[in-house]
Specification:
- The chain is an alpha+beta fold.
- It has one domain: Roll (Ubiquitin-like (UB roll)).
- 13% of the residues lie in helices and 28% in strands.
- The protein has three helices and eight strands; from the N terminus they run H-E-E-H-E-E-E-E-E-E-H.
- It has a four-stranded mixed sheet with strand order 2-1-6-5. Strands 3-4 form a two-stranded antiparallel ribbon.
- A hairpin with a 6-residue loop joins strand 5 and strand 6.
- It is globular and about 45 Å long.
- The protein starts with 11 loop residues before the first helix and ends in a 7-residue tail after the last helix.
């Protein structure tokens, strides 16, 4: 794994209170990025960035991610046209998670055709286990994924 282009991690004081961006990538070289609508605050998706995706996102102002399943860099909207313009990137106190506030060029951030990837809720106050039922929440489709992505292509 190549060294990262961002500042090396130093003291807890610097990481938690300092002004130097020193993101902590996991053992696979990734950092989780929670993507939220800049105006409504709605959580749209959770994705991962590697060093290159984070750098491209910062430099271009558009969201880039790393696909763990395809093991490749991808730009959101590359296939669908549903790009995400970055309004702001925040880092948490440990600098090991990102909050990416975006403006959507088109409604529908999820490859399933929905506004958000979080369109189902887990039933609470029930015995935990394999029989839990998911309840749809804001689950209407805004676009037909087959028309946008074609065959089986996901979320580009």
């Amino acid at each position: 794994m190549a060294p990262h282009r961002f500042a090396p991690r130093s003291s807890t004081e610097q990481i938690e209170e300092g002004r130097v961006f020193s993101p902590k990538f996991d053992d696979d070289g990734l950092i989780p990025a929670i993507v939220a609508d800049a105006w409504s605050g709605e959580i749209l998706m959770l994705a991962y960035m590697d060093d290159e995706a984070l750098a491209r996102s910062i430099e271009s102002g558009e969201a880039w991610f790393y696909s763990r399943s395809r093991k490749e860099l991808w730009k959101k909207g590359e296939t669908s046209g549903h790009t995400l313009r970055i309004f702001e990137i925040r880092v948490d106190c440990d600098q090991d998670a990102l909050l990416v506030k975006v403006e959507q060029t088109e409604r529908g951030a999820c490859h399933t055709g929905r506004a958000s990837c979080f369109y189902r809720a887990v039933t609470l106050r029930e015995p935990a286990g394999h029989m839990l039922v998911l309840t749809p929440r804001d689950a209407e489709r805004l676009f037909d994924p087959a028309q946008v992505y074609g065959g089986g292509e996901k979320a580009r």
